[in-house]
Amino acid sequence: MSKEHCLYCFDALVAHFEGRSVLEPDFDNSEYPLFVTWNTKESAGEDLVLRGCIGNFKAMPLHSGLNEYALTSAFKDGRFPPIAKKEIPSLVCNVSLLTDFEAGKDYLDWEIGVHGIWIEFKDGNGRKRTATYLPEVAKEQEWTKRKTIDSLLRKGGFRGTITDDVLQGIILTRYQSQKAQATYQEYFDYIQSFE
Q1: Measured between alpha carbons, how far is 147 from 160 in angstroms, rounded to an integer?
Q2: Considering only CA atoms, which of 116, 87, 86, 122 is closest in space to residue 104?
Q3: Global pTM?
Q4: C-beta separation of 35 from 55 below 8 A
Q5: Neighbouring residues of 96: CB distance < 8 A, sequence distance ≥ 6
Q6: What pLDDT was estimated at residue 77?
Q7: DSSP at 105
Q8: CB 8 within 8 A of CB 180
Q9: Helical H segments across the chain, by residue range
């Protein structure tokens, strides 16, 4: 896992806007479940603002997977409008490769800042729903485990009262991630090295 993965995602996004093919990556094409996250940062010292985060729990080749999810998270995260070309200089890209999946004993069987969590639950109509947070989310938001689970239930579409029965009915899978980050400036410097 390296910054190169993030630089490749930047190139996929820029290539989309420029109508060209993405540059050939230098990293291997191993298969991983992965997530690509786009944030904006307007100036030094400013907090990052989420602009898109989408991934896949099915292991996929890194070259095609990062290319696909760089664009999917930029344009198809329904929580946000699609990223515009003019936003590219303010973007920061994070890539998370997911590893070490384990079944949790219950909804609290995970560690904040160590594990990402994927939950499966039934909504008020008995339909199966799922939702996930990457390992850094609860820590960055300064949430407790319970606050994280409550938020994740809401993210997954649960609209009713969160009772002990609802909590005990959760099937939790915990996982870890390898993560890298790159700014647009780092991508720009990387591209200049080819010219």
Answers
A1: 16
A2: 116
A3: 0.87
A4: yes
A5: 34, 35, 37, 55, 116, 134, 135, 177, 178, 179
A6: 93
A7: S
A8: no
A9: 3-18, 62-75, 135-141, 145-155, 164-168, 184-192
